Amino acid sequence: MRNAYLSALYDLAKENKNIMALISDNGAIVYDQYRADFPEQYLNCGISEANMVGVSAGLASCGKIPFAYTIANFIVYRAFEQIRNDVCLQKMNVKLVGIGVGFVYSILGPTHHTTEDIALMRALPNMTIFSPCDPREAKKVTYAAAQINGPVYIRLATGGTPKVYEKDYDFQVGRGVVLREGRDLTMISTGSILLEALQAADQLKAEGVGVRFINMHTLKPMDQAIILKAARETSRILIVEDQNLQGGLGSAVAETLADNAVVCRFKRLGLQDVFTEGYGSYQDLKEINGIAKKNIKDAAKGLLEA
Questions:
Q1: What is the layout of strands, in order, in the sheet containing 152-156?
Q2: Best CA proximity match to 101, nearest among 114, 117, 86
Q3: Looking at the domain that runs over 177-305, which CATH code has it been given?
Q4: pLDDT in 10s for each residue of the chain, 306 residues
Q5: Where are the domains of the chain?
């Protein structure tokens, strides 16, 4: 995802001199080509994420379109006050880009995991949130973010995220994508954990279970219509996310169902009010924390039996 984002940002900067790339020291090497070709559209703010967000707001007030990039937990947690007051309160045209969302930085431990960012950023007025599932979608959300006049948060996994989409598709801001059709139950997921859930859905299909699978690439504004249609037609919804469940994707879907008085069997699979446990690869942590394919399949079967 990282390289796809950088490729899209390079294209944008080439076409629009107001596009600015800001980093907080990390990622300097991967910006080498961008920095060489657009030196006046690049700024390394050093290891000072809160200051980087404040600088971004100042640049936006002068007509620039800053894309502020760093590890997600640092930009969301360390700079939250500046995001709230300097960017969202003032409706500044700032794009915040967090790399390593969820717990893809598995071996670095909970201090470097970003498992509450959806809840925090979703609570901010004026914020648009993109959560791409693969490199192709990361490019699409980057181009889309540049067209939005206001605050945007882009959640990225890592540089080696596997493909979900093998060919192009119609991307629309605020519109979920049905990746699989089915009428027995609906799975909804987002971001890097989506592939694990999609593979579980395909295994269930092989066992005769019809799973409708929705990629919710835009978390705010959220596609309420696709949620309500799925609830009414399948009567069961399973959310899979690599977040703490309080305030995440599942909470947003539950709010949609409650606000529209739609009743269905509903379950959220994610971190149960805990920080991540264990150390190892990303796959190891999915298994240790109960969000691997087996856990997803068991949760789906439990919904079907309810």
A1: 42-44, 19-23, 65-71, 95-99, 152-156, 128-130, 218-220
A2: 114
A3: 3.40.50.920
A4: 999 999 999 999 999 999 999 999 876 688 999 999 999 999 999 999 999 999 999 999 999 999 999 999 999 999 999 999 999 999 999 999 999 999 999 999 999 999 999 999 999 999 999 999 999 999 999 999 999 999 999 999 987 789 999 999 999 999 999 999 999 999 999 999 999 999 999 999 999 999 999 999 999 999 999 999 999 999 999 999 999 999 999 999 999 999 999 999 999 999 999 999 999 999 999 999 999 999 999 999 999 997
A5: 2-156, 177-305
Q: Contact at 8 Å (CB) between 153 and 19?
A: no
Given the structure tokens 């629009």, which residue do they identify? Answer: 16
Q: Is 196 noted as a catalytic residue in this protein? A: no
Among 15, 40, 49, 137, the active-site one is 49
Match domain 2-156 to its CATH number in 3.30.70.100, 3.40.50.970, 3.30.70.20, 3.40.50.1820: 3.40.50.970
pTM of the model: 0.96
Q: Which residue has the tokens 């540089």?
A: 159
